[in-house]
Amino acid sequence: MIQVGDKLPGGTLYEFIEVEGNGCSLGPNAFDIEKATAGKTIALFALPGAYTPTCSAKHVPGYVELHDQLKAAGVDEIWCVSVNDAFVMGAWGRDQKTGGKVRMMADGSADFARATGLTLDLSARGLGLRSNRYSALVVDGVVRTLNVEGPGQFEVSDAATLLTQAQQLAR
């Protein structure tokens, strides 16, 4: 499992782009994790799945709501990572009104989740291998804070906790 001080694993995440521009075509676009995090502070939060109750009612809305405060604390981008395809993440982002605030990053084959060691096997519930729920502050590709939830919990990966940590790091 990744730890504070570790570099994020390399690989690719996918994001559904709504508007063509900046070298990005419409639809799913691939982003190299190492290049996308270089020189930036990323508030990354991962969750088991799009449209799931806690994820839709609490997790994503918290980051959308605290977007401006996270930016003021030095966060360059906010990423939501889930084991879903880019089409689902794009639709969920539209539903959650994340545009311009939270990048909805797809880990469709769970490659990133496996590489972090933060997987959650929900096969018994028909959901397969998923990402555990967690949040992290990533500075220039290195994990500076990591908040991993216990099974079925939503206590430490919320936006308010990560905001407090970002404010502490900014001091």
From TrEMBL:
Residues 2-168 form the Thioredoxin domain. GO terms for molecular function: thioredoxin peroxidase activity. The keyword Iron does not apply. The active site is at residue 55. It is an enzyme of class 1 (oxidoreductase). SUPFAM superfamilies: Thioredoxin-like. This is Glutathione-dependent peroxiredoxin. It comes from Ideonella aquatica.
